[in-house]
Amino acid sequence: MARTKKVKQAAKFRASAGLSVRRKWLEIDIPQRQKYVCKKCGKKSVKRTGSGIWECRSCGYKFAGGCYLPSTISAKIIEKEKTETAVEQ
What we know:
about 90 residues, single chain, alpha+beta, N-terminal domain of TfIIb, 4-stranded antiparallel sheet, about 35% helix
């Protein structure tokens, strides 16, 4: 069987998709399938259940997040601003 060092799981698309497309797909797919730390219980058991829906397999906590990651860049910026205003007050 052939090796797939460059594109790993994206090898299922074969040569018809092209290398650059398969690499871009990997940038999205690998983080999407990882487990993340739960904000409620602190365990590394958050998995994606649907588009933008994330669920902790340990405590059952469900929340809406980004489509491919549990927290988006804009959400992180908002949280940072909230903590800064809380410190000022």
